[in-house]
Design a protein that fits this description.
4 copies of one chain form a homotetramer. Chain A is built from 11 helices and 14 strands. With about 325 residues, chain A is of the alpha/beta class. The longest helix of chain A has 17 residues. At the A-D interface, helix 6 and helix 7 of A face helix 6 and helix 7 of D.
Chain lengths: ~325, ~325, ~325, ~325
Amino acid sequence: MIIQLQSEMNQADQQFIVDAVVGQSFTVNEINTQQGKYLVCIGKNDIDMRTIGNLPGVKDIHRVSDPYKLVSSKWKVGKSAIDIGDGIKIGNGDFQVMAGPCSIEGEEQIRSTIKHLKSLGIKIMRGGVYKPRSSPYSFRGLGMEGLKLWHQIAKENDIKIITEVMQVSQIEPMHDYIDIFQVGARNSQNFNLLDELGKVDKPVMLKRGISGTVDELLQSAEYIFSNGNEKIMLCERGIRTFEKAYRNTMDINAIAILKERSHLPVIADPSHGIGIRKYVDKIAMASVVVGADAVIMEVHECPEKAFSDGQQTLDYKQSENLMDKMGRLRAML
Amino acid sequence: MIIQLQSEMNQADQQFIVDAVVGQSFTVNEINTQQGKYLVCIGKNDIDMRTIGNLPGVKDIHRVSDPYKLVSSKWKVGKSAIDIGDGIKIGNGDFQVMAGPCSIEGEEQIRSTIKHLKSLGIKIMRGGVYKPRSSPYSFRGLGMEGLKLWHQIAKENDIKIITEVMQVSQIEPMHDYIDIFQVGARNSQNFNLLDELGKVDKPVMLKRGISGTVDELLQSAEYIFSNGNEKIMLCERGIRTFEKAYRNTMDINAIAILKERSHLPVIADPSHGIGIRKYVDKIAMASVVVGADAVIMEVHECPEKAFSDGQQTLDYKQSENLMDKMGRLRAML
Amino acid sequence: MIIQLQSEMNQADQQFIVDAVVGQSFTVNEINTQQGKYLVCIGKNDIDMRTIGNLPGVKDIHRVSDPYKLVSSKWKVGKSAIDIGDGIKIGNGDFQVMAGPCSIEGEEQIRSTIKHLKSLGIKIMRGGVYKPRSSPYSFRGLGMEGLKLWHQIAKENDIKIITEVMQVSQIEPMHDYIDIFQVGARNSQNFNLLDELGKVDKPVMLKRGISGTVDELLQSAEYIFSNGNEKIMLCERGIRTFEKAYRNTMDINAIAILKERSHLPVIADPSHGIGIRKYVDKIAMASVVVGADAVIMEVHECPEKAFSDGQQTLDYKQSENLMDKMGRLRAML
Amino acid sequence: MIIQLQSEMNQADQQFIVDAVVGQSFTVNEINTQQGKYLVCIGKNDIDMRTIGNLPGVKDIHRVSDPYKLVSSKWKVGKSAIDIGDGIKIGNGDFQVMAGPCSIEGEEQIRSTIKHLKSLGIKIMRGGVYKPRSSPYSFRGLGMEGLKLWHQIAKENDIKIITEVMQVSQIEPMHDYIDIFQVGARNSQNFNLLDELGKVDKPVMLKRGISGTVDELLQSAEYIFSNGNEKIMLCERGIRTFEKAYRNTMDINAIAILKERSHLPVIADPSHGIGIRKYVDKIAMASVVVGADAVIMEVHECPEKAFSDGQQTLDYKQSENLMDKMGRLRAML
């Protein structure tokens, strides 16, 4: 059960409500986000919600049977739009493409990429400066130095930055240089990281785990929300199955279901979702048809020469063609 | 290696070619289909294909490194279209929708369904008369009696029939009453059934196994082709994964890959691909975007009352809406 | 609900019971096996079983909430032992090893194998004469001719035969030459084959599907039982997962659970369960510890030269060592 | 390629070797652990190892084709034993059981558990003070306060402590109060955490990810080793598959393979491996037969009242029986 409180309410009224709910054998979590005040009440009793709903200071009250609460569409029927700044929004009708290389490699690459993205009308650039790699002997990214360089060039060119944060201690140093924190698939249930990202005022794109369920993804999002940050986007990036004809199995079913179960925007990652360059455009198109609010994809001037593995990365011409096709598709939908 | 022979060639010339290839330590499978003559040659030697290619009676010769041969696009680059009769085709640009109930229930249901399908321009009706059921105590279909009734009404109304064949002994009795044999997911590697379907002159729609790989599906198709029947359609119907938020995981990656690896048409089954009615339209649309040559879907006047489980079945209004949306989508592509 | 009837009961009494149950809105399946008479009653009502239990002709009555009925241990608490003939039994304390090659290759191989098996005290020989192969161009077994040869030599040497039956039309020709029908993983839900095997008087070993659930396996066994054949053994042979370090994932959890949910014997196939020769002994030992009633394994005089792929096949020395280890282990348990 | 250096070698000799290898287009990682000095060289050239092997300061040189290097048995053929202190060892023939509750609940529970464990001869107690929970509203453990209390009572009773560390910032505070750091399944690829655990002088038990491959687990172990800590134990705890008859699929295949591919000890977690109390003993026994060097299991005086979910937790009597059975089994092996 979620009780939404009036934002200006006094402490005594709030305590009165908490006591009333606790009196019904519920545990109460008092949640203050940047946008609102909520009581998330967990319990098994059948409670008469009208009694609570009429108390002073209660704005709204909803029963939410899902294991996740504040991210559920059972509480908030309308769709959330995430504000990236400068009028760029994702969700509730606003669609964006985020594109860029797997790894940030250096100034020349950054400038070339930004020039290309801007020519296509893309407003958000992706790229890794901290790379999760299976082997400790692989390239792990340029780190903060690379991020600062990227940030400087991006600001000059009015382009937003999304990049992966891998641990709590990186949040603060990265904060002023990024526009969206990305949580990678391997950290989808790194609960301490999620807790801390709930305390920042920047949007977070949360990727589904490699074998994470839809339910687990939504509960991970609940970690962020319940710590105070409502600006969350969910990302489907393919799951691990028995099939070896491609890298991951893009789960478009999950996109359809997430869009219905949650008010949060859902983003598709077709690059990882299939992992083979020549099919990325088809998977991107399918994701758009199913309802994705944004697409995040890998683009590089010369994928064969990309740091890390570029086999799922589009070149400039391919990304231009895909932008064109997605534009026409969205116009039709 | 596939050697395509001229159809009118004499036996001596053919034997000469066979001997030449066997002399290179290849085993040779002589394949006669309703449409052509082929030698499928399996071996490890590096052979000079020009020597063979110049022999009398050889139309064409191709190296095919895939484990499947005659169904591979490495041998036949152009796409195959399957002729269902009366000008109805699937593949190589021709798109069809096949729709109807899970199970054939009786005359009234058949007439109602056909009337509905015809109003939407749908030319092929699906429905089960032999139903594979996990439990021996469940309804297993009306059998031949139901099929004969259905066939009579369908012919009166110029609508084609696709239905599942479950065992070799059913092929002959069913043959004259159906237009397309469907092989279900549980029989995707029932090799004896595939062998026998290779000897009939009706098209076969072969479903991917519940956890079948793309490779296994293509090799199962190879069974049909190598027995003489080239009229094969592949069907993606969702795979079994760890996720329990839906019934199966629709694998659009597989559609994209099958379309590239094989010249055969690829059909999408969004009903089983997600298994929940309200999402079927989105999954159908995504399948079309990725390149499906046809969509097969469950439709019933009153899904709640359908024999077997109707939770993945569209009602008439929903199927009408979806036909409209697919039409507009295809016009754009 | 299962009502076990007295075997000598008259038809009028039986009809009276059926009517009583039907009167409670149950559907009734009248099952006659080689060993007993049962009414399997499916319905949702809460029925007073004592009323039925006291009717003339009723031997026993049990509520069975599982989707499978006659194979459930909720109905038959004691364990079933399957009689292979000549005092050889499997289940309820009797343990057997079945061993032999992947494929029957010829007289010399048969004689060598039997000599080896007998030296180890093994009483049942496995081997394929009909082989399910992914590719139509692979060796598919020696067929009936091979089986007849094998049968002749086996009878001379007092060794039993288990071999795979792939389709209904093979049952009758094979019947007199085999001691146990094996249903392979790909046919685990070939319901027509299961129906027909329910009508023969030879034991059946039913393999779990490549991605079959425990529930599906038990329901497939129910097909055989409900058609009249109670002599069923279940076989765990590894499932398909994401892991590629081995061929299949041996599911010892399933062995433990099957042993509890069903009264039928459970057999382990460590050869397919891991698919790599050097680990087969460990997996066999683990299966015995978990409670397997038999082990079926691949053995060949020279695995490298075996028809089909011998990479999961033990040589004679390895199988001798394993027999010794299993013997000591079983003595301890 | 791994070059093991003599521990007392001078810097100039080391640099000479590094230069020689770099000259062959290898990248060189200089690794200093608490036990040795290594150069891990990554490259594609075919190098004459004898040239390097004869250089001053080289103790040993090995080609390691695996993606993991220092944890591979290709480099270190003998098995590693991990010293837990006070003569307690795991691996290379030394076997231990670690047991205790899911969560540490308080003094009474700690004292009761320790008394029970000591009566069974168990020397290492498990228990969570930081609990990874899918939902932010679940109990997350007693934290450092609980750990300190536990540590005090454990020291009084000469029992070792293994507990989960969830993030880098917990390592230092926990360090003096624990004997083994446990890395949970969800953190199996939390590379920053692994890096830091490579810098401490306490043993680490690394759990396989929920859908982690054998290869990924070994590469994660490589992170710890290459940062300086050789005291690593690998833990199989069940994987996520399609089967829903139990919580996870215990992968005994993986235990067999890990034991062969790596010199590190392998630990089995039968509690999570099946997730249902009544089967835990069978899975534990199977793990021992396959070669596990230790078993970690959940035990609680009253599992039904355990904090968190106790459905996979043994009670005292059950754990006593299992200890007895494992003892007899190990005596036989």
